[in-house]
Design a protein that fits this description.
- The protein is built from eleven helices and ten strands.
- The protein has 338 residues and is α+β, with helices and mostly antiparallel strands.
- The strands form two sheets. The protein has a six-stranded antiparallel β-sheet with strand order 1-5-6-3-2-4. A four-stranded antiparallel β-sheet has the order 7-8-9-10.
Length: 338
Amino acid sequence: MADDKGGEKILSQNEVDTLLNAVREGEVSVESKAGAGNSLPKYDFTKQRKLVRQKMPGLKIVFDRFQRSFRQTLSSLVRKVVVVEYLQTEMVRYSEWIATLPVPSCLSIVRLSPLIGQSIVSMEPSFVYALIDNICGGGKISSQSRKKEGDFTPIEFKMIQKLVTYFTNDLEKAWATLYELNYEFVRTDTNPEYVSIVAPSDVVVVADFGINFEDTASRIQLVTPLFALDPIKNLLSDHTFVEQSQPNPNWKIWIGQNLLQSRASCSVELGQTEISMGEVLALKTGDTIQLHQYVSNPLPMFVEGVRKFDSRMGTSCGQKAVQIENVVEKANADGEDE
């Protein structure tokens, strides 16, 4: 409590006792003015999502690389322009994610190696039908007629496995600079109830990729258990990796300094000629071999077997030596223009 002058007013012990007696006798009401308890919202502690705020910038770098690679893979597969866009990464409980899936779905389970656990590659059936029909020579009408079918044929399951393999191969390439991760196809199912890679309450990382193909707009989701990423979470949370994933201007200097310290073999060709084996066996000390090279012409100098300079033969400090006259351009060294 505070008085009119801004100072604190402390109740004495007698005032406190009087107030408590008044409350017991009912002279002072203690009912809450905050409203009835039944109007308060209920809070479900099982839906706590503190882990959603966990930042993994390394994942965004990996998925950005993947989308560019997978776009090229799909476009070359159907020989048409396919747009692949990385949308977002979120963390949800597995039960919440699985509840959003329709029946039928296209859920492919892949095993993570060397990490523990399995991931799910979820594709919308409409996209799968459209892609398979285009690969097999079908058109828009045939792909539209397949959207409401309940299951895939054995041949389509084989093609889905091949498509998932393309997906995981590009993922492995995207992971290569951060961690050597391998994906192994296990099986494909159409009923979400039969697909369980973790407990319903476990948290999974869901990466969304938008796919635009002709008139078909769909998405592919990669679902990975959060506990599977625990061994490499330091790598994924390290901002240094994000910075080093961009071109570093100092790399050119570092590479140049290391190249200056490297060793290379050099050789000078004095000339060439052809003689018979009998003439070689008849050679003795003091004999002269005439080469197809004029003394006035420059001698080619090779660095690691590649012609780089023109030079002159001579002596330096009593030792045989060559003097570099000029640098040979690559077109001249190869004998033809590139």
